[in-house]
Amino acid sequence: MSRFFISTPIYYVNDYPHIGHIYTTLVADTIARYRRLQGDEVYFCTGTDEHGQNIIRAATKEGIQPIELADRVVSRYHDLWTQLGISHSDFIRTTEPRHAASVHRIIEKIEAQGDFYVDRHEGWYCASCELFYTEKELSENKECPVHERKAEWQSEENIFFRLSKYQDRLLAWYDANPHSIRPQSRFNEVRSFVDGGLRDLSVSRSNLPWGVTFPGYEGHTVYVWLDALTNYISTLGFGDDEKAPNFQKFWLEDDATRVHLMGKDILRFHAVFWPAFLMSAGLPLPDTIWAHGWWLRDQKKMSKSTGNVVRPGHLIDRFGTDPLRYFLLREMSFGQDASFSDEAFIDRYNSDLANGLGNTTSRLIALSRKNFENRVPPRGKADDLREVAEEAVRGFTEHMNRYAFHRALEALWRLLSETNQYLVRNEPWKMGKKPELRDRMGEVLWNGLEAVRLVATALQSILPEVAPRLIKQLGAQGDSEDDRALGWGGLESGAEIPESDALFPRIAKKK
Ligand code: MSP
Question: Where in the sequence numbering do the catalytic residues fall?
Answer without folding.
Answer: 18, 21, 126, 129, 144, 147, 301, 304
